[in-house]
Amino acid sequence: MPKGDKYKPLQQHLKSDGRETVTMAFDQIAKLVGPLPKSAFIHRPWWGNHDGNSQAIGWMGANYMAEPNAKAHSVTFRKFRY
Predict the structure, then answer these.
(1) How many Å apart are CA 35 and CA 29, to the nearest integer?
(2) What is the DSSP secondary-structure string of 40-79?
(3) In whole angstroms, how far apart are CA 24 and each of 1, 2, 3, 38, 63?
(4) Percentage, residues of the chain above pLDDT 70
(5) Residue 53: how many CB atoms within 10 A of its CB?
(6) Residue 36, C-beta contacts closer than 8 angstroms, at least 6 positions apart
(7) How far is CA 78 from the centre of its chain?
(8) What are phi and psi of 78, to 5 degrees?
(9) In Å, how far are 12, 81, 82 from 69, measured between CA atoms?
(10) Residue 29 and residue 50: Cα distance in Å, rounded?
(11) What is the pTM for the complete model shown?
């Protein structure tokens, strides 16, 4: 599977939503892409907004930045402008 393909459904979801801010629970994301790794729940860097994170292709490819809230098991995606 090419890098980031697992997270393409998340990218498509964010693109079709299109709002400036989209907050999703981790379990909502898992319904789109399959189970999230344990590190998504406990390591903020897993949600890093850089090309080195294959999962970041999911949100950055839709022009969003991730802002996780591990305590709430959610993440807020905010649109970014070039």
Answers:
(1) 8
(2) HHH-GGGG--STT-TTHHHHHTTTEEEEEEGGGTEEEEEE
(3) 25, 25, 23, 17, 16
(4) 94
(5) 19
(6) 26, 29, 30
(7) 10
(8) -120, 135
(9) 22, 22, 25
(10) 19
(11) 0.92
